[in-house]
Amino acid sequence: MSDTNNQGSQSQHIHYHDPNAKFDPPERLIKNAHIKSFTQYQQMYEQSINDPELFWSQIAEQFHWESQSSGQFLDYNFDVRKGPIFIKWMEGARTNISFNMLDRNVEKGLGDKVAFYWEGNDPGDHGKITYQELLEKVCMFSNVLKGLGIKKGNRVAIYMPMIVELVICMLACARIGAVHSIVFAGFSAESLSDRILDANCCAIATADGVWRGSKLLNLKSIVDKALEICKEKGKPVATCIVVRHMSVLSEEASSDSNNVGEAPDESPVGKRPCKKLKINWQPGRDHWWSDLMKTADKNCDPEWVDAEDPLFMLYTSGSTGKPKGVLHTVAGYMLYAAATTKYVFDLQPDDIYWCTADIGWITGHTYVCYGPLGNGVSGIIFEGTPFYPDAGRFWAVIEKYKVTKFYTAPTAIRSLMKFEDNFVTKYNRSSLRILGTVGEPINPEAWLWYHRVVGNSECAIVDTFWQTETGGHVITPLPAATKTKPGSATFPFFGIVPAILSDEGKEITGPGEGYLVFKQPWPGIMRTVFGNHERFEITYFKKFPGYYTTGDGAKRDEEGYLWITGRIDDMVNVSGHLLSTAEVESALQEHDAVSEAASVSHPHHIKGECIYCFVTLKEASHLGELFNDELVKELTAAVRQKIGPFAQPDFIQNAPALPKTRSGKIMRRILRKIAVNDRDIGDTSTLADETVIDTLFKLRPKDA
Ligand code: 6R9
Fold first, then answer.
1. pTM attached to this predicted model
2. Bias category Polar residues: which stretches (predicted)?
């Protein structure tokens, strides 16, 4: 490698951040916090590891158990060499999660407390529902489901926008022991049908349509298509329940859709925008939610289920393409969702807690629905997007509801950073105490902006690492106890024993980098891949026997802080140096002109692999929109400077937008194809916007 000392082109536009700089927990949080110091965290952590039964049974005491188990509190096998993998917490105990989320809170006197504020796509379209009201609606809908013949163990697909009925539907399934399988209402008809078929769902709940920003989505027509595919494949779905969210039937629509009738607007919260939407109707199969609810009984005894009975399944993409139905069970998930929400967001009775994730993703399951309800706090269900009507929407909502705890994704933060700080600062954010991030490694640049601009340098930032499979946070700071380093998810949550393994499967103790694995089960870990236990064992337990393999890389620094370096398949090996794409991206993002960056591995005849970068420029950059050789030089220098000359990217291309999944994850698999000019990009069904692909192929540098 040549030219290691060339620092001549360092630009004034690059801000370096000291990776060891630490931020103290905000003083004002400590007095009332559940965990007040790092020492207290360490003591509790030790206990959670050495005596999981004692630790988790204390947490279980907060909940109602219809009957206790006489068997083992925890039983498991994590080692494929010893037999099949299994994980069981509190098997034999009987409970019901909807009872614990609702009846128990009402009994404690929280009946009149707001369970959820609902904030619609349009500012001004809003409502709220109390714990008592939510309980009543859930009981009614449970009776509706029972009336339709849905029983314990049946799978119910849910394809809904972010409306209160979505939570009602989840909790009603849980109340009668049915298993919900939520599909994010942004997936195509084909993806939806794949998931319905794989889970063998007997019913689906949806809504007529939804506005997402300024785009109108006809959800019912997507569901119609999906159900058509299911029928063609010989597995018709008997029941489709439709929430009337927005349609006022025009004459045109009602004339060619018999039996639609006029559905009374019985929605539990708020007024709804009335927009014309053409809906087709299949009598016998399709039912209006409000029609079914009209006659439903307001009382419904919960079905007492086993701790290890399934609660829900949720599909996550697999490296082989076919999505995996991650299965979670009742009691372990309940304990873990409630405990992580309580400690990581340091929940207090008067909190207004807002997680912006869609319930269609695991973050929404755990941190919009089950975690907050399990702690009896008031949450927000947000139907809108960060950019509608403008880039100030998040901060407007924070001001409106006096949000105290806020949880969002790095991708949202990075895209909002592009705009002037004034979009944030013109709103009152003095209620904020804790700011969370999840979904991807957060680059220090974005972390610091979140901390300084959004949090006014007065809030704790919790960078929470976890997965659909883990059920809840596994590596995370605790807001009043952990000194944070921007970009580090810091330390394990209670009950989590992380290890870093080398390629050969040796544990790296002390500082080092490798595969992130976990050594023992925690209550929230997935139990199987629905219908394919072998795939569960192969995906998570085969590579390193005795460990749960996350598929992510991690680095432990001298002080023991953990830094997630990204998916293992996002590692680049340049001339024998193992590099994470996240590291390179972070270096690029420190440049003033850069809004977002993604880097992938590209084959190289000498180095083996080299780095190929995609860079999105800030719209308002004072360097202009110009992507030119000068800028490429500066960016190259930035990476050399930050990581080392070996990390110097060979290619940097202009990317007006990056290919992302609907949950905002950059699809590096597709970027790798673009980098090598391979048009055979495979499955793009999870891509939010397919048009970016063509643009990126066109903008490839000539020499690549
Ligand atoms: C909760 C969720 C899981 C993958 C995970 C990792 C990435 C999530 C992260 C993070 C770095 C964080 N990830 N949180 N990487 N820092 N704080 O996102 O679940 O959709 O299953 O994705 O997301 O790569 O393996 P899921």
1. 0.86
2. 1-13
